Amino acid sequence: MDTVVKVILGCFIFVMLTDCEKIRNQQEDNLPSGSSVECIIYNVTSLNCSWYPAMTECQSTLGFWQMGQVKECPVYLKDNRRGRNKCHFQSISIIRDVQFTVQINVSVSLLPNLSFSQMFEPYEIEKLNPPLDFRYSLKKESFSLFWKPPPTKDPIMKNCFVYQLIIKGMDSKHKENITLNEKTSYTTETDITKRYAFKLRVRGTKDCGFGNIWSEWTEETYEGTGKYSDVLIFTSLATLTLILTLILLYVFKRYKLIDKIFPAIPHPKEKMAEWFLNFGKGERDYCQRLQVPVEVI
């Protein structure tokens, strides 16, 4: 009897250990690694980092280290759509020409605590803000676009920026995709009767240590529907009105329609004199007819 109990207990322990080993192996396979960490600097002073997988049984913490500055992540988020954990620093001082380290500590049941770290070059992961003060100046047959470099934490030379400009015809399929190195202006010919939309974005060059991350686009700027189009419409309407007026004057004169529509009114004085003259003549004739001859005795 004791032997049977020992066999059953041994089988139970073996099954439990086997299941635990399977769970352990599955958890080890699903644990995050250093290569899964992604970080991006944006809005000059903000930092976002993410890693996967976002396991419910895992508790993760993130720490930032650079030149003796140590910061623990203030805000943790979960990206359920991508299955990633996220950390957000709203404002953090990052020295751009010095690497920083992100360390993640993970605690999970049935496993010892795990930690891994990854180093980043700040410029390589920085997403610049859009260019500033994007505006245009319109001339007779051309327009010029102007802008200023994006804001940065440290002064950066103009040749460290690459700009992408999109010019799109609103009334046609015309579209220009222009890449400009270093320049902060662009001039091209235009047709004032057509509508255009412009937008601009920027990234840093690899020669200056930047990665290949483009900024967001500026808000679209529109041209071609302003006062120049209104002047053209007004001029066309004025010309058409003048032509129609000349045609009507010719027709009225040719067929004397003015005399027929608006006949001449006789002069009042002449009409009254004629009436009084006729009235006096009639009275005299009447009086003569009433005269009775007188017999002379």
From TrEMBL:
Q: Which InterPro entries does the record cross-reference, listed alphabetically?
A: FN3_sf, Ig-like_fold, TypeI_recpt_CBD
Q: What is its main location?
A: membrane
Tell me the leader sequence span.
1-20
Alphabetized, the UniProt keywords read: Glycoprotein, Membrane, Receptor, Signal, Transmembrane, Transmembrane helix
Superkingdom, taxonomy of origin = Eukaryota
Q: Which residues cross the membrane?
A: 231-252
Name the Pfam families for this protein. IL6Ra-bind (PF09240)
- Residue ranges annotated for the Type I cytokine receptor cytokine-binding domain, each copy included: 38-124
SUPFAM superfamilies from the UniProt entry: Fibronectin type III
Name of the molecule in the record: Granulocyte-macrophage colony-stimulating factor receptor subunit alpha-like
> From what organism does this protein derive?
Lepisosteus oculatus (Spotted gar)
The taxonomic lineage of its organism, from the top, reads: Eukaryota, Metazoa, Chordata, Craniata, Vertebrata
